[in-house]
Specification:
327 residues; alpha/beta; seven-stranded parallel beta sheet; binds 2-keto-D-gluconic acid
Length: 327
């Protein structure tokens, strides 16, 4: 019997591609290459499975163009690039890579809180530019982190990890808002208190966005929400770019209605709004919150294991839908 054909659509660790090649007939993108969406779909057209990342959209149109497709393994925990309803309706299994990135991503979320509050990148740029000629009492004086109020919007596994870092590591008061309130035992473990959205915006000294991006969450932080925040507050986004209205954020940062922001994700990534690039009080990183070598390897292996388990008939290990088999 011939092996299922799998497309590896983003460069990934060679050892993981090699492992996949032991189970499938593989077509893998070359390192350094990037396919347009059209090219991706053209290559997917005769495949049974795919290993994809956030940059690849799989929607009804793609599914219709790929009649053999049975399984899409997303190498990320967020899967807003997949139209899960369309996949389910078509009988295509989808999976993501939860858990293995939780702590690493929480570390980075907290690093961005620190970087924005303590103006680290602004200060480093100043030093490198040779502008440090004397010491001043107010040079890059930023906002306090320890003992301040940490607000978290989206209290899944990563949000809980950030809460624990804030509460136990920095003595912060942690408040959160989530679609559903967490169990009291989880709240106690995170030392976090549930509040409604207006209280979260008004009281947070540092607000971290870590909720999934859905239609309802589009621009969940816009001009109106920014206006409710403290002018001394910072905003950190490690969720998805579309959670924040970037135009409104730029206006708020320029007008001094917000002290600083740190963004790892962007509305049009990898393009970044030029208005953000001009601002000194925003830290910008290229979607690297989960990027440590061990974590990215664990994500790649889990994405591969999902494909292997599915095509061996055991079912995906970390599925995001439960489709009937594609006919
Ligand atoms: C991924 C992420 O690296 O897991 C997620 O949801 O945002 C990152 O960890 C990125 O999406 C590439 O697939």
């Amino acid at each position: 019997m011939s092996q299922p054909r799998v497309l590896v659509a983003s460069p990934v660790f060679p050892e993981v591609v090699q492992r996949l090649a032991g189970h499938f007939e593989i077509e893998a993108i070359a390192d350094g290459e990037a396919w347009s969406q059209e090219e991706f779909v053209r290559r997917l057209a005769d495949k049974d499975g795919a290993l994809v990342m956030g940059g690849h959209r799989v929607d009804a149109g793609v599914i219709a163009a790929c009649p053999r497709l049975r399984m899409v393994s997303n190498m990320s925990v967020g899967y807003n690039n997949l139209d899960v309803d369309a996949l389910t309706a078509a009988g295509v299994q989808a999976s993501n890579t939860p858990d293995v990135l939780t702590e690493t991503t929480a570390d980075f979320g907290f690093a961005l809180v620190m970087a924005a509050a303590r103006r680290m990148l602004e200060a480093e740029k100043f030093l490198r530019a040779g502008q440090w000629t004397r010491w001043r009492y107010d040079m890059f004086a930023g906002c306090e982190v320890h003992g301040s109020t940490l607000g978290i919007l989206g209290m899944g596994r990563i949000g809980q990890g950030i809460a624990q870092r804030g509460a136990y590591g920095f003595g912060m008061e942690v408040i959160y808002h989530n679609r559903t309130r967490l169990d009291a035992t989880i709240e106690a473990a995170c030392q976090a208190r549930y509040v409604e959205m207006p209280a979260l915006l008004a009281r947070a000294d540092h607000l971290v966005l870590v909720l999934p991006y859905t239609r309802e969450a589009h621009h969940i932080i816009g001009a109106a929400e920014l206006a409710c925040m403290k002018p001394t507050a910072t905003l950190v986004n490690i969720g998805r770019g579309g959670l924040v209205d970037e135009t409104a954020l730029i206006a708020a940062l320029k007008a001094g209605k917000l002290a600083a922001a740190a963004l790892d994700v962007f509305e049009g990534e990898p393009q970044v709004n030029p208005g953000l690039l001009e601002l000194p009080n925003v830290v910008l990183t290229p979607h690297i919150a989960s990027a440590t070598v061990p974590t990215r390897l664990a994500m790649a292996n889990l994405a591969a294991d999902n494909l292997i388990a599915f095509f061996e008939g055991h079912g995906a290990l970390t599925p995001v839908n439960t489709p009937a088999a594609r006919s």
